[in-house]
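User: Predict the structure for this protein chain, please.
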Amino acid sequence: MSENVIKLLPDHVANKIAAGEVVERPASVIKECIENAIDAGAKHISVEVVVGGRKSIVISDDGKGMSRDDALMSVERHATSKIREVDDIELVGTLGFRGEALAAISSVSQFIITTRREEDEVGTELQIAGSTIQDVRDVGCPKGSTIKVRNLFYNVPARKKFLKAEQTEMYHIKRMFQVYTLLHHDIGWKLISDERELVNLPPVESLLDRLHDLYSKEWVRDLRPVSIQRGGMEITGYAGLPTLTRNDRNEQHMFINQRPASAPVIMRAITEGYHGMMQRDKQPVLFMFINLDPGMVDVNVHPTKKEVRFRNASAVRDLVIAAIQQALTQKAENPEADRELRNDLMSRMVAPASSSKGFPPPSVKKSAPVQYPQSPLVSQDEFQSSDVTSADKGAKNAEVGSAPWKWCKVLDQSKGGVILLETDDGIVLLEPRAAQERVLYERIMSDSNANKVSSQRLLQAETVDIPADLFEEFEQSFEQLEKLGFEVSAFGDASVIVEALPASIGDISAKGLIEEMAEAIKNAGVGKGSSRVLNESLAKSICRAVARQRNHLNTSEMEMLVTDLSKTKMPYTCPQGRPTMIFMGYQELKRKFGR
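Assistant: Here is the predicted structure, written as structure tokens:
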């Protein structure tokens, strides 16, 4: 008989294979050990690395520790204290549960674990090299556990070659470390690299306190609190303003049931939540905690638990979108603090600058104050409306609401079309076309969604020729056009007759508008996307066409534009995400003049 070709792998080989899934780089080792420390109830966790973790990694915690028998069992494959039955996976509430991490790490390194429970007089030290136990002995040590990992991948040369430069590995360690300091602000954290202390964070009471530890004061001020509950799910955290952006998703931190993880549906929901508020090539900043019944999410999808699967993905998607939009349109709780916050926001829309504390308004003001856009950056109960008075005209007190200054007046418009505004805290440059686009876009979408669109008939119907390659899809969109206030009908092979336009767009030639919308409809893909996507494409085309008509405005028109902008949900950007205004505080102006 021929020899059997299928054989059971030895444990040390199986462990090395498992290590390929769990241990990718030094940051992976630290992640797994940190998660074990958190599950053990640690209140202080320290990480020390040498040469980016390639030479040495030491993770210490003051958790509950382990007995001698548990320490020996912890390095066996599939040995865990987190679950007992297969059904427990559906309800797992700990960071770790598979029982593979320590076995995998110890199989590809020189591994030492020292641990002691509070009730034990002595601790246990276990030394392993490449899955082989070298020594087990009693030692004196503090309560908790310390894991030392030396010469990672020393026995797997092929894997070791894939490690990057020290700086690259250190970058991954810092990013991973930051994630867990955000997840557990109630834990004290320390990170040491080559005997140099990089991070030393004490336990704090709130996530906001931790954000202040990790980021600049000005940066944190561009975050808005997230808090929403629906259908047994809860989302908390902070959402960044549309002006606080990055070129990648590195500052989008998602935590699902207190575990760093995400899912494709969440990424799509984030894009949708910020739709129309920022440029397409930019990414928002988010710190979002999603909590739901463990039975509604499958965490056993990815070997490192980076990705999860939801049982009701559409409900999660809708709640994420609602959470973001609610955060960006709420009002503030503290008028003074929030006013300072929004002044800083505006200043960074032009360039990084020192924060403006504000100066007393001048004694003479030549025009009545204009209500400025309500901030989309503040919480619902936060910013109580205050009164402002025009000193020279005795104008009736105007309710400013969440305006970032006590008064605002139009000074003039430059030859280039930029509108200059003066406030009690600085100077604002308003781009009228972007502002008009935002005002019209929200007005059209609001009327369309509420089925309150009104039409204005043309004195003389206009015939517009449509490019042949655009006509078929444009003709299919007549129903959507009617909902937006158009009266359009086919005329000939590739022409249409326009008899009415939306009343809100004013006096404008139908030809250029219809041609641009035909292109927008082609790009939106009629029959492929939703009516909402098509309506938004049409609305943006209307905005662009209207905003291009006339750039110079008189004083009354400028003041009306600022007032109309104040009623929008997102006054800081146009529908394409470009800024509508830039701000420079008096303090920054003084600095630029060397005073």
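DSSP finds 18 helices and 27 strands in the chain.
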